[in-house]
Specification:
The chain is of the alpha+beta class and 181 residues long. It is 29% helix and 34% strand. Strands 1-2-3-4-5-6 form a 6-stranded antiparallel β-sheet, with helices on both faces. A 3-stranded antiparallel β-sheet has the order 7-9-8. This is GNAT family N-acetyltransferase. Pfam families: Acetyltransf_3.
Length: 181
């Protein structure tokens, strides 16, 4: 693992057996946007259909996390060929879900449909959690998972998350989970 200063923010790069994780860059936009417009990928996630403008603004928000908070979401690439395959990490999205959720680093992960079922999301999310544990040592992290999203519940369990409440988020029932160190 290494971290360098890039354009005023921390720019960590993590390598696992199969993956490379690093903060998103402007050059990632087309591959990232293509993934985010795959509606089947988002069947369990309360994410809007993004226009190119909305997608661009979201990518800039990701850079803002790194610049202002020192942590954020990582773009995930397959090490063998450098292909963008998803994202993972921890962020602060200010979702308005209450004092027991907002203000804590919130974990998230998503990989393209072609990479699902291969353990890639868990490998990436575990690497991002090791990074934040070593770098910022948060005592508590949280995540939000749609009640139907069984694959994400399995990943969350492997990472040490436990459910502590249910909330409605953007009109859908979700479970809120925490990982306490």
């Amino acid at each position: 693992m290494r971290s360098i200063l890039h354009l005023g923010y921390i720019d960590p790069m993590i390598e696992t057996e199969r993956l490379i994780l690093r903060p998103h860059r402007l050059a990632d936009f087309e591959a990232w946007y293509a993934m985010f417009t795959d509606r089947e990928l988002f069947r369990f996630i309360a994410a809007p259909t993004l226009s190119r403008e909305d997608g661009w603004n979201r990518l800039l928000r990701y850079a803002g996390h790194w610049s202002l908070l020192g942590f954020g979401l990582f773009a995930v690439f397959r090490k063998s060929d450098g292909q963008f395959i998803g994202e993972t990490g921890l962020a602060d999205f200010h979702r308005g879900l209450g004092e027991d959720f907002d203000g804590y680093p919130e974990a998230g992960w998503i990989v393209s449909r072609s990479m699902q079922g291969q353990g890639v999301a868990l490998e990436a999310a575990a690497a991002a959690h090791r990074w934040i544990d070593e770098t910022l040592s948060p005592k508590r992290t949280v995540c939000l998972i749609g009640k139907e999203n069984l694959p994400s519940f399995r990943i969350a369990s492997h990472l040490g998350y436990k459910p502590f409440a249910e909330r409605n988020y953007k009109g859908s029932p979700h479970v809120v989970l925490e990982r306490v160190k």
